[in-house]
User: What shape does this take?
Amino acid sequence: MSTSTALNDGLVVAQRNLIKIKRVPDLLVFTTLQPIMFVLLFAYVFGGAIDVQGSNYKEFLIAGIFTQTVTFGATLTGAGLADDMKKGIIDRFRSLPMSRSAVLVGRTVSDVANNLLVVVVMSLTGLVVGWRIRSSFLDAVIGFALLLLWAYAFSWIMAFVGLLAPSPEVVNNASFVVIFPVTFIANTFVPLETLPGVLKTFAAWNPLSAVTEACRQHFGNLPAGRPVPDYWSLQHATLYSLLWIVVILAVFVPLATRQYSRAASR
Assistant: This one.
């Protein structure tokens, strides 16, 4: 089967997933309400208690909220695949003359589209609470593109997890236990300098810190007069983020595809 045919099949599956979201509006509502809640909660409840030297905390915050939200948003991929497996929809796909990779490509692409909507909602909410983009239009576009690339790469990890898990509930619970602490042991919500020894080192090399740092750079939201970070990962945040994206795709695209073949053949 040709690459173009596989891509066309993937787009058809992506359209199916987006139509499913449209027909279950509750999922879309809660997906967009969560980031709004986080923006308002951190901006107005914790914002007064967290001091960022040389910067407005609301501007410091938004890139971290973006990174956390698109990372959690990628879990929809795993939950969706686990749900399709549980309901036998994957078996129906296997009976159709379509590419094996189409189900995974369609799932990950549709969830990036969902993340794009969430980013738009968060951006509007951020503007309301006082966040501003202080860089060029091109820099801002690069920042948003990096977020969506990270979300797409991470969705392949969740696709692999979703094909291993017996139900969407297991995917949600397992991903929350892992992702939640990882997003907080980072520079997402507090300056890296406030973290103690080992946690600071972990946070500095945490890819979520790099994505957040890169977005702050591209949005022009870095604190004024802040010294250059001591860590290579944050000195070259965009490059480090892209390296992680490439490695994740190189590892988990074949892993997820192989697992899909195994799971679908059971």
